[in-house]
Design goal:
- Belongs to the UPF0125 (RnfH) family.
- Pfam families: Ub-RnfH.
- With 87 residues, this protein is of the alpha+beta class.
- It has a single domain, classed as Beta-grasp domain (Ubiquitin-like (UB roll)), CATH 3.10.20.30.
- The chain contains two helices and five strands.
- The chain has a five-stranded mixed beta sheet, covered by helices on one side.
- A hairpin with a 6-residue loop joins β1 and β2.
Length: 87
């Protein structure tokens, strides 16, 4: 079946169209797409993944035409001004 795998890499977004077997999981699709060779900074143990903007688990099964998305890790450094009070 045809699917796509996308990653919004900092230097350049990556979109890979590929064919996978029926019953393929999200993790298998990411591995088979070659994305991890293009973007070795991806850590699937720490980064969330989704299909069409909805979070899914790595063992979720794909359907024809699905778009697998690997999301950037979100990090935020709080300044002294950034605290939880409203004043």
């Amino acid at each position: 079946m045809k699917i796509s795998v996308v990653y919004a890499a900092a230097h350049q977004p990556v979109l890979l169209n590929c064919r996978v077997d029926d019953g393929c999981s999200v993790e298998q699709a990411i591995e088979q797409s070659g994305l991890l060779r293009y973007c070795p900074d991806i850590d699937l143990k720490k980064q969330k993944v989704g299909v069409y903007g909805k979070f899914v688990k790595l063992d979720s099964l794909l359907k024809e035409g699905d778009r697998v998305e690997v999301y950037q890790r979100i990090t935020r450094v709080l300044d002294d001004d950034d605290d939880d009070d409203d004043d």
